[in-house]
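Standup notes
- DV: blocked on the single-chain target, sequence here:
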Amino acid sequence: MQNDLITALSRKNALFAGSDEGGANWATIASLIETAKLNSVNPHAWLTDTLTKLVNGWPQSRIDELMPWAYAKAEAA
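- DV (later): unblocked, structure below
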């Protein structure tokens, strides 16, 4: 029941994206947040850490290490 409520709220919130591009950007962020949750990662902590690393020049060749499932493994270690 709770997942149905979350989906309904999410769908309703998407109506206020403002434009097609805004909707696409919103969908990308929502997907990243849900992927973090599915991997038992705190979305706020993960996004903060990931964005900080990207701003500080994280190498493109190691971008896979920033994905939520890799972050979960690094947290566990």
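- Follow-up: DSSP finds four helices and no strands in the chain.
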